[in-house]
Fold:
Amino acid sequence: MLKVFLISSAFCLLPSALILGIQVKQVQAVYLNNNLVKKSKINGDVLTQALTISASNLELQAQKLFEKGDFSASIPLLEVAINNYATQGDNYSQIRALRNLGLVYLKLGKWQDAEAALNNCLNLIQQTSNLQKTEKITASVLEVKGQLKLSIGQAEVALDTWKEASQIYEKIDDYLGFTRSGINQAQALQALGLYSQAFKQLTRAKQNLEEQPDTIIKAKALQSLGDVLRGIGQLSESQKVLESSLVIAENLQATEEIAIILISLGNTAILLDNPQAANLFYQRAIQESPIVEIKTQAMLNQLNLSVEQKQYLTATELVTNIDDLLNQLSASQPGIYARINLAQNLIELRKEVFANDSNKPLYPPAKIADYLVTAVQQARSLEDARAESYGLGTLGTLYEHNQQWNEARELTEKALILAQSINAADISYQWEWQLGRILTVTGNTNEAIVAYSQSVKNLQALRSDIVAISSELKFDFR
Structure:
């Protein structure tokens, strides 16, 4: 399940110009030379006269939506920008915008669309006469493509792709890019079960970072390194690296980055069996950050910790505060996962505290269901199949605990079908196991055995939890 709640952060290098009030009801754009036609819609306010807006401003607007987690809404803006760049004959900008489009599709779990956009990038690069100018953007495209390959279980291809990106970054003396690609390679090695090689790769990455001047980019890279080290069980090393990242961010007075690093430190502290330290890190993150998404993230981690520690009074207070913050979150991926995570904790609270009295006024099933129904509706509006699967499956968990077996089975099966449709084995195994429990209780033993067996098969295929550095992939406007 989600439990430790991590919001992926996206950073951009664009000027601060912002175009407001761009409205288009429906955008149809043709990009590159492959006659690929996409039709996209934006929920809520719609776009008009987008083709008259400069492509760079459309990219800026898309970046703002991306940062909010409203990934689907950024798609038509990027498509129009790509079309405009094609009309202008600006190949370099087309490549950049297509790379960003591929990243958006990656975030949404739309693997085929992501691959099409990234392949279009690489094809266009081959058609560009000044290949030297495109070396950096090529490496950036390869970084995203590597993450895509890892996401669909092609770890060996991901490893080769990131090696290629590393070679380019080394050639152009971009040592931060070189180091970032090295961290990515460690993830692929981890997925292949090559843990010793992964650790050696991370050790080299750490040495490379130590030689770089202290910048925000270095702080972010160290934070990513700390997260990956935690993912492969190198907890003490993870803590040291994250502490180094925090010192840099504090010296630079980078408030948002400080809060994000503090949350990472809290997550490592939990695995080091130091819940008191973890809680202090989360509390500092809440105090440091003015950003509601980060505050919500830290509070949800505190709530999860309180539930695990059976500190029910503290948990009750946190639920009230989180509920207030949820009302400030937009219909975006962070808001969706926040509602799902809160619902998961409330289900656990009901199981622990109110299992023998379903009439308790606190955390009634209907209230928990409201959080999940809202999350599912928002996920559908954003065309986010992963989030929708999590929402439906967790709703199935709620019905399971309420012993409404037919509804629990139906919702779990829907969640499983969604997860399977996007080849998300990391989600599928959870719903297969849940389905096995439900089928067992309802006397469908043979079907339950099949569900359990498939869950174990998927879990073994995953091999290990992978800390996705995709949270550090950002829009590229260079």
Remarks:
- Confidence is low (pLDDT under 50) at residues 4-52, 464-478.
- Strands lie at 26-31, 36-41.
- Residues 333-353 form the longest helix (21 residues).
- The domain at 193-288 is CATH 1.25.40.10 (Serine Threonine Protein Phosphatase 5, Tetratricopeptide repeat).
